[in-house]
Amino acid sequence: MAQYFIGVDSGTQGTKAVLVDGMSGKIKATAAAPHSLIGGLPQGAKEQHPRTWVAAMEKTIQEVVLAGKAKPSEVKGIGVSGQQHGLVALDDKGAVIRPAKLWCDTSTADEAEALVAKMGGLEPLLQLTGNGIPAGFTASKILWLKQREPKNYARLKTVLLPHDYLNYVLTGQARMEAGDASGTGLFNTRTRNWEPRCVEALDSSLADKLPPIDGSSSQPCGLLLPVVAQKLGLEAGTVVAAGGGDNMMGAIGTGNTKTGVLTASLGTSGTLYAYSSRPVIDPRGEVAAFCDSTGGWLPLICTMNVTVATELVKKAFQWDNDHLTKEAARIAAGSDGLLLLPYFEGERVPNLPAARGVYFGLHSGNYTKAHMARAAMEGVALGLNYGLNRLKDLGIRPKQIRVTGGGSKNPLWLQILADVFDAEVVGLATAEGAALGAALQAKWAYMLHRGERVRIQQITDSLVKVDPSTRCQPKKASAKQYRALQEVHNQLSQACAPVFPLLARSV
User: Fold this and answer.
1) How does strand 88-90 pair with strand 193-194?
2) Average pLDDT of the residues of the chain
3) pTM
4) What is the residue-wise DSSP string for 422-491?
5) Angstrom distances, CA of residue 196 to CA of 203, 292, 403, 413, 507
6) Which domains does the chain have, with CATH numbers?
7) Known catalytic residues?
8) Each residue of 250-293: pLDDT tens digit?
9) How far apart are CA 234 and CA 19, in angstroms?
């Protein structure tokens, strides 16, 4: 009998689902459902209502089961990937109290700063938990709720992250796993559990509102509830894996489960991450010391603006993706001295939540649409490379960089990344990294649930494939030019840092 596994990736812009053949790893069916941000919110606020995620998850699961012609008995497991750091607040009846504040919400910057100060500053916090508390982390959102919406906070019974809430809908179990939990600002990545001193600093009653941490990401979150199974057209009791954050699931889906591989994920935000068998703690706090969702660790950097930058260029000039690429390809590496700091939504690495975008180096020769398009792509890559250099400083030595998400099939994007990173870059056979990873984690959980002994590395080594046709090697001349531009990029970010907050307060 065939064995299928469903992977769901609930992101900022929409939800994707895949039906994966458990024997070959091939994706038999895909489905997508868009969802948008709530409009009309103050500057920096980014929110969505969890019910939109639930509706999109149900719709896409139903569609892949139908399109893949899978019998209910053939679907053995479901895994859920979700955008990290979001706050889903539930009351004592399990109902959502208010819309979720998302990872890209920078309106909690003051609360994040206050929590870090209460812990004695960044250095003691890093020594304690391995991570700081940037504005995106969940802890700052909880404090925001407590201080700005005390009536809602008084109703708070359970704190969940986006993927945890979807698991809760599927299974009725309110739980967390170490990978996603390590992005809350309340989690000790060394002990892989809640850090009491951080929890106490926020609220002495908060400990009772945090769900238990699953000891192993290999264990199922629970089993599919009968009422949900009937709605989805599946069998009650189907295994629902622990799931994880989109980056943790992206690591599994790109085969990044052992040393030597680094994943570059290009979405609304950009992330770089690598597997480690030990915690990797950055004394500067720029690299997130996350756990992964396989039992290891996932040192990671996140930039908040990747497709944000290119989408704004497309919108301004009324272009599609092909036109953007065509125009940018006409311009030589370095954009004739035009440089973009793509900080349209603030920035996390470097930690500049009030930052704004800056086109720098304009002159009469590069004041063209094509130059601005090329500079947007290069500025995003330079921002990611700032983080890659920091990972290298901490001992991460990637032999291959695997690219997933938007642009992973675009030859110009890949060549720019190879030149900026000065490393081999390759795309994956499928662009659905996080959704595929969730499905593969579901296979792992199902096999262990049945008593089979298997490591996640065995599954990813056999089922995750790169696309050899996308492989790019760095061009020496371009790589040299980008090394020089990287210095300009870094210095310009530092020079503008004191000005950004002044500009934010003036509008």
Assistant:
1) unpaired
2) 95
3) 0.89
4) TS-EEEBS-S-HHHHHHHHHHHHHHHHHTT----HHHHHHHH--B-GGG-B---HHHHHHHHHHHHHHHH
5) 10, 21, 37, 44, 39
6) 1-83+215-253+436-464 (3.30.420.40), 85-160+178-213 (3.30.420.40), 255-427+475-507 (3.30.420.40)
7) 246
8) 999 999 999 999 999 898 889 999 999 999 999 998 999 999 99
9) 13
Can you say whether the dihedral through the CA atoms of 236, 449, 298, 424 is positive or negative? negative
Lowest pLDDT segment from 227-231, 360-364, 419-423, 431-435? 431-435
Going by DSSP bridges, is the β-strand pair 400-405/425-427 parallel, antiparallel, or unpaired? parallel
Q: How many CB atoms lie within 10 A of CB 450?
A: 9
Say if strands 27-34 and 14-21 run parallel, antiparallel, or are unpaired: antiparallel
Task: Note the Cα 82 to chain centre separation in Å.
Answer: 8
Q: Are 290 and 190 in contact (CB under 8 A)?
A: no
Three-class DSSP category at 377: helix
Tally of CB atoms within 10 A around 146: 17
Band of residue 431 on the pLDDT scale cut at 50, 70, 90: confident
Strand partners, 244: 81
Task: Give the helix/strand (H/E) hosting 383.
Answer: helix 369-393
Beta bridge partners of 490: none
Distance CA 198, CA 184 (A): 10
Q: Is the peptide bond between 350 and the residue preceding it cis, with omega within 30 degrees of 0?
A: yes
